[in-house]
Structure to design on (121 residues):
């Protein structure tokens, strides 16, 4: 006599919900966030945001213990991502935040951390 095993499916948690952003938005967002995902770059962004106006590259460099080439590398990454813009004035470049990118990062994070509406019972 053979006993049959009954498989009982136990649900440990509610089913997962769909992502709040599309794949292409996630890819673009990841590229944007990677451009600011560095302590030096976040510090530069903070400096630019706090100043409220363009800041000379010399003042940026003087605020860090890193060399000028390293600061220029970080500025280049953020400039390429469109997070900051540079305005050449004589021999100096003045950097400022691009407000539309600030709003893009803010919107992205709001979408990612969006709390879905409760499912109707």
């Amino acid at each position: 006599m053979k006993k049959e095993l009954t498989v009982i499916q136990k649900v440990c948690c509610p089913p997962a919900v769909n992502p709040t952003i599309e794949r292409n938005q996630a890819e673009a967002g990841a590229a944007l966030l990677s451009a600011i995902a560095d302590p030096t770059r976040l510090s530069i962004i903070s400096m630019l945001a706090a100043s409220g106006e363009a800041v000379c590259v010399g003042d940026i460099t003087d605020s860090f213990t890193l060399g000028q080439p390293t600061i220029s590398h970080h500025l280049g990454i953020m400039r390429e991502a469109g997070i900051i813009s540079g305005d050449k004035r004589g021999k100096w470049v003045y950097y400022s935040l691009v407000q539309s990118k600030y709003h893009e990062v803010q919107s992205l994070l709001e979408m990612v951390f969006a709390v879905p509406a409760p499912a109707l019972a």
